[in-house]
Amino acid sequence: MQKYLLLSVILYLQIIGGHSANPAKPSTPDCPHCVDESQYTNKWTMPLLKLGEKRYYLGIFFKANWFKAAQYCRYHGMHLASIASQEENDRLEKHIRDFGLGHEHFWTSGTDLADEGNYFWMANGRPITFTNWNAGEPNNFRYENGEEENCMELWNRDGKGLKWNDSPCSFETYFVCEVQPI
């Protein structure tokens, strides 16, 4: 409950003041991953991490199902993340591990809701060409309540790093948003 209260206060301050309590600093030698966010399309000043050409936001203040996570990202001018290469996957994984959250689950924009077994990135509509699935995934497991696994998460299931897993879209977990330069 305190997390939600703190988040509400921060959002209120952003609305009233028109800026974040911690505005992003441009990249400097003492802060190589800081980003001047003014050139990006996010609605609020969010703490974005620059990894390669993309900027990411780790949604770690609350857990959400896939749809609410996507809505949160979109509300802030971003999308759930898409991962196009092993290099991008490794950089994102390293950041998550360095943040101390390598054991958690994180939503991405990957889904096969439109066509079972054919995953694509909801963020850009492109089919997934690079893959990093956990062994035996995606398996579209069917739960007792009839729900199937149609949304993609990053998950360190067996201690071999953050790999991809299909999960029920109703599962509440953390998420990764991305924003592209204008």
From TrEMBL:
- Organism source for this protein? Ceratitis capitata
| This protein's record includes keyword Disulfide bond | yes
Task: Write out the GO MF terms.
Answer: carbohydrate binding
The record's keywords, sorted A to Z, are: Disulfide bond, Lectin, Signal
**Signal peptide from the UniProt entry:** 1-21
| Coiled-coil annotated residue ranges, if any | none
Q: Which PROSITE patterns match?
A: C_TYPE_LECTIN_1, C_TYPE_LECTIN_2
- A Pfam family this protein belongs to? Lectin_C
Gene3D superfamilies (UniProt xref)? Mannose-Binding Protein A, subunit A
Zinc-finger listed as a keyword: no
InterPro entries named in the record: C-type_lectin-like, C-type_lectin-like/link_sf, C-type_lectin/snaclec_domain, C-type_lectin_CS, CTDL_fold
Q: Which residues form the C-type lectin domain?
A: 51-178
Origin: domain of life: Eukaryota
In Swiss-Prot or TrEMBL terms, this protein is called C-type lectin domain family 4 member F
